[in-house]
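Batch job 17 of 40 flagged for manual review because the log was empty.
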Amino acid sequence: MFFVPLFLSNLKTKKIARKIEYIRTTDSTNETIYKMFQNNTIKANNALITDNQTAGKGRRGNTWFSSNGKSLTFSFIIKDDNDLLIKKIPLISGIAIIEAIKKMTNIECQLKWPNDILYNSKKLGGVLIEKKEGHFIVGIGLNVNEASFERSIESKTCSIFSIINHSIQREALLAYIFNNFEALLNQELIEIIKKWESLCNHINTFVKFHNFQNMIEAKFIGLNEKGEARIEIGNNEKIFNSGIIEL
């Protein structure tokens, strides 16, 4: 059970997630929060969290597995009222999570472009951002107190519990994520890019880059001034604003 009063007691934001809806179970928090937004039961800057997501979505149509009462599985809505938001949100989502984990546990996590959360190259969390009706829907899944995983994903997945061998308060962790997110929104894009690059675990290394139907083996150089990926293919540098990286 997620205790909203405990979450609110740790929340320091001025706008984001000051109102949060908790539902015991749902198929996808991104889908549910969008329906609630259409019905005017949730507004911009509000958030939705569930203890049991049955059909979570990852990027490129992948499935996101979450554990009942163990994960953090939530979505929130941001109005697209600033030209820089489309550049900032994909970057600060991952940074906000990593800084919150560090605050609570002293764990040093890393980022895989654009916003996968890794620990020792195993996936700890992920972010799915969708744009609908002039708003960004940010969905986040984070493995927190899971002691084990399904066999199909256990070799490439981890949780905070599996790293530190004890449970932590999901409510406080979520509040810290939102606190960081709002603070990062107010920073200059160039500072966000520098912070993101400092947390990336594959700067100047060769990766497999999937761009739509193409798979390219290339060097990931970093980000440009717009927060887009700089990929070196042969002796040529190319810029991508979407795609999936395999390490």
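Reviewer: the log was empty due to a logging misconfiguration, but the result itself is present. The chain has a mean pLDDT of 92. Unflagging and moving on to job 18.
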